[in-house]
């Protein structure tokens, strides 16, 4: 038997963007525990905007477990928040989303590293001498600084140790801005891994005195890029059948549902989806092959040989978006298009 450190993590009740919370309990197991072996736990919902003080108990229901290589016998236990009667709490968006293991999602999480209230590497006043240009996939101290890469590398290793399908890293267009990609089969699995990856990133940053800024346009109306969380998606049908007619019907359905998609694609997206900086305007819907100014980018591989098969990239979700809601909305629109 060994004593395991179980970090139960959950999303709190703050709106429009929930915060990650976590606390540790120690339990003894013969080996790394399976999800089914993990007990329910509770917390004080009055401290997380999830309950009134007079009746503050909320329940943590484990839904996924990941090894935590930063701790001896450590595990991260992702939880849904439940009411004492076992029904999902109002803040528990995961419980009710659409899922389909044949639907695959690849999320590209962009974010800024922030120190002392400004992007890492920005001078105390104003902007860096060198504007956007050298930072995207950049290399060298004067461009990248010395801490950022330590952080993203450490984060990558933690994700891989946790069994998360981390697929890659790149430095982004703005100074201090980075991206990582997470791929998963099923909306719950992909989104679970994204939330745990976000959690790990924030935790790694603590010891560097750095915060993760997920806001989609932290530098406002300037010549500095915002942050997205492009949602790449495919279904079994899109991968195996596809075809031009189905694709066009699907895009027409996306065009009909612009507001419904934008509603769950993250707050303040009007600041980012301006038609500039590789975005389409928030109220328009467009798609195009290799078009980074479109709402949906169609990869070359998709249209190859006229097959219209594979995955599509919805570029509108932003960096603060909830991957559960984003994936579920995409599945809903897909479900409204009949397959022959
Ligand atoms: P870019 O920056 O050019 O948009 P990235 O390489 O950052 O591209 O991201 C591409 C994403 O597409 C990755 O997250 C990957 O997991 C995802 N992806 C690739 N194939 C599929 C697929 N068949 N279904 C869903 N997502 C996919
Ligand atoms: Mn990318
Ligand atoms: Mn990017
Ligand atoms: Mn992309």
Offer a few descriptive terms.
Creatine Kinase, Chain A, domain 2, 2 domains, five-stranded mixed beta sheet, 9 helices, globular, binds adenosine-5'-diphosphate
Topology (elements, then pairings):
Elements: E1 2-11, E2 20-29, E3 41-44, E4 57-68, E5 74-82, E6 104-115, E7 118-119, H1 141-144, H2 148-161, E8 166-171, E9 177-185, H3 187-206, E10 211-213, E11 229-234, H4 236-240, H5 244-256, H6 258-263, H7 269-272, E12 287-289, E13 296-298, H8 300-303, E14 312-314, H9 323-335
Parallel strand pairs: 1-5, 12-13
Antiparallel strand pairs: 1-2, 3-4, 4-5, 6-7, 6-9, 6-10, 6-11, 8-9, 11-14, 13-14
Bound molecules: adenosine-5'-diphosphate and manganese (II) ion (MN) (3 copies).
One manganese (II) ion is lined by residues 108, 179.
Could you explain how this protein is built, in words?
The protein has nine helices and 14 strands. With 340 residues, it is an alpha+beta fold. The chain folds into two domains: 90 residues, Ubiquitin-like (UB roll), CATH 3.10.20.70; 232 residues, Creatine Kinase, Chain A, domain 2 (2-Layer Sandwich). Strands 6, 7, 8, 9, 10, 11, 12, 13 and 14 form a nine-stranded mixed sheet that branches. Helix 2 packs across helix 3 and helix 3 packs antiparallel against helix 9. Adenosine-5'-diphosphate binds next to strand 6, strand 9 and strand 11.
